[in-house]
Design goal:
One of its GO terms (molecular function) is catalytic activity. This is Phytochrome-like protein cph2. By secondary structure, the protein is of the alpha/beta class. About 50% of the residues lie in helices and about 20% in strands.
Length: about 575
Amino acid sequence: MTENKVLTILLIEDNWGDYRLVRDMLHDCAPEGFQLLHADQLAAAVPFLEGHGVDVILLDLGLPDAGGLDTLVKVHALAPEIPIVVLSQIEEEALAVRAVRIGAQDFLVKSHISGPLLTRSLRYALERRQLEEHLYRLAHHDVLTGLPNRKLFYERLGRALAQARRNQKPLALLLMDLNDFKGINDSFGHHVGDELLKQVSGRLSAALRATDCVARLGGDEFIVCAGDLADLQDAARVARKVLDFLEPPFVIEDHTFRVCASLGISLYPDDGEEMEALVRNADVAMYMAKGQGGVGNRFRCYSRQLDDATQERQELQEALQRAFGEGQFVVNYQPQVDLHSSRMIGVEALLRWHDAEGKVVMAPDRFIPAMEESGLILEVGEWVLKTACHQAAQWTRETGRSLKVAVNVSPRQFRDPRLTDRVRHALEAAGLPGKRLELEFTEEALQDDEELAQETLRELNRLGVRLALDNYRGRFLSLRDLKRFPIHSVKLDRTIVRDMTESAEDAAIVQAVISVAHVFKMKGIAEGVETRGQADLLRQQACDDAQGYMFARPLSAAAFSELLQREDDPRQLQ
């Protein structure tokens, strides 16, 4: 507050002599600094307080329609945001202390006041109230976005639940977080991440009604309380509107981001009658939405079945962590064959989960998504990479054959800012040339953030590593799009290869992919080849390499070593 600001003061005082005394003191000390309003009883003060133009209240505790501290309580209830300075005939320390505890900023005894004391008290009262409001805002609002924080949100949620019970109307809780926000922070810096959070907050506020409450819980997690709904369909409409507002790209500095979010919905009273249950169930639904995979915004509504699925997911993630610690994961190797020379030119490293007796515990398509979700894939993926590189180097030393080893990189690994360093360290530790390692990634990894994907691939390319697009189906990227990336090979998805001998459409897709790949100087690789008919058709269409059960099933490292030593003629793999 500046000293030059004109303060509007409301004096609530029934003694006209005291009114004139206050007026004269203010005029003598600061004639241009104060505007004085007067009410001679509490009822007469109400219109002034409703007008929102009063800065400070001077209050006499003895009024015709209110008396004692009850006067202070009533005025504070009418205008809780306006600081109050009490004027009293009674000089009593205990009364002054109680007045301040109830809500007064200061307590002045009429017989002891002077002009300077009065003006100083009024300005200090306003400054203290402003400081209190600032501290309250710091304690109840997120400093970065200005949205309510967890504490304030739960206070408002409690009131909204009480109102929903009284009105017997549904209330929706929406919990949302941004997909791969950590990758943006790591790749572009926290200042970019902070600006993105501020822009997201602005869009959320714009998408919601004034009666809804949106808060930032921390990190990239936001929560919304939406009341006065008719049913679950109403809640779903709110969720769609929120996600629609996030669809347009965000522009920060020289970067453009398309941000995707996962959102979970729980509904009062169907999914819980207390806030703890509603928050927990919205969290369950959000993680199920996140687990759906794919690219784009998505939401899920809570159901009892989700609870069971969440419990199973948590148990699986815990079991995977134990299995990794106990050495239950192994790497198998499936040969890759040059279709035209029938020579084995490489292997693909495949992660498998075996128990202590060597029996398969679970198929990779079930446990790898759980690793991806929990983040364990980063640690396990690095172990697979190191194991495969060491094994490839060992085979070279034992047989003299320079086989290429292909290793899968999951979307989460691909977004890891340390990916290039992990690959470099694995190659150096094994003594394996970069050209002997091929990293396979999916088109979803490229689609999430094309700018980041291009930079990551360029860094890997500088290591000499070969790059292959795995399971290509053209869902998100056309082959023409691929020329923007330094890719060496395109692997046809096994579902297309499987049906190509029976489906003219799938055969045409295979032909088109291989032809365009060759135009861009990429190799075409087919996986899942199981029959000679498939292999023959792939040769006719000039496919370069293939792998599948027709040539060999995935083998343990020991079994593959025996195969290399036994096979004088690689054509026996046909």
